[in-house]
Amino acid sequence: MLRDVRPDIVCIATRQTQHAEQIKQAVASGMRGILCDKPLTTTLAEADGIVMACRGAGVPLAYGLDRHWMRRYRWVRRLVADGVVGVMAYGLPNLVNHGCHWYDVALSLAGDADVVWVSGLVDDTAGEPPDSPGRLDPSGRAQVGLASGATLYVTPDGRPGPAFEVLGDRGRLLLSILSRSHNTSFQYCG
């Protein structure tokens, strides 16, 4: 299709295990831009290969996550633009299918600063069947250091259900996701 139709931009919306190869094929066929659905990949090596291919050819890659742009998160970003010292993300059920949203929102709330370091742990799933949901998309936790001096903490533990906590110089703000419809409750402690 890429050779026959020759589009300028392509959207990769297939299973994440196919993204790396399909993005590399799109780059090699001369795409001027690529939009990739979430999750981007299932391994760091695949993600590195995608970045190298796109950078090497000068092809912009956009990552299709929507929560980053939701009004409530943009509002919180404006509130914490100055003085953020940390963002906690609670209730992350898994690292791949939901994790991409959690990390995107946490990075966004912290001002989208560059990542300087990461330390984390992926839950051991060696005892589970190869096709079990937990093994295909395990849970885990991480600390992420940002160039701004902020630190992200992401964990499946903590609050009942998904939540973000933003810690700053002037207090803290707790965002609790109330339901699958992503309604959010805000609680500010100044």
Q: Helices, strands, pairings?
A:
Layout: H1 2-5, E1 9-12, H2 16-28, E2 33-37, H3 44-57, E3 61-64, H4 71-79, E4 84-90, H5 99-109, E5 115-122, H6 133-136, E6 140-146, E7 151-154, E8 163-168, E9 171-177, E10 184-189
Helix pairs in contact: 2-3
In short:
By secondary structure, this protein is α/β, with parallel strands linked by helices. The chain has helices at 2-5, 16-28, 44-57, 71-79, 99-109, 133-136, and strands at residues 9-12, 33-37, 61-64, 84-90, 115-122, 140-146, 151-154, 163-168, 171-177, 184-189.
Helix content: 25-40%
Could you describe the largest sheet, including whether it forms a barrel?
7 strands, mixed
Query: Number of DSSP helices?
Result: 6
User: In percent, how much strand structure appears in the residues?
Assistant: 25-35%
Q: Which CATH class of the largest domain applies here?
A: Alpha Beta
CATH topological fold name of the largest domain? Dihydrodipicolinate Reductase, domain 2
Strand order of the largest sheet: 5-6-7-4-8-9-10
End-to-end separation in angstroms reads 56 Å
How many distinct domains? 2
- How many β-strand stretches? 10
CATH architecture of the largest domain: 2-Layer Sandwich
H/E element order: HEHEHEHEHEHEEEEE
**For the CA atoms, what is the radius of gyration?**
18 Å
Structural shape: globular
Structural class: alpha/beta
- List the uncertain runs: none
CATH homologous superfamily placement of the largest domain: Dihydrodipicolinate Reductase, domain 2
Overall pLDDT score: 81
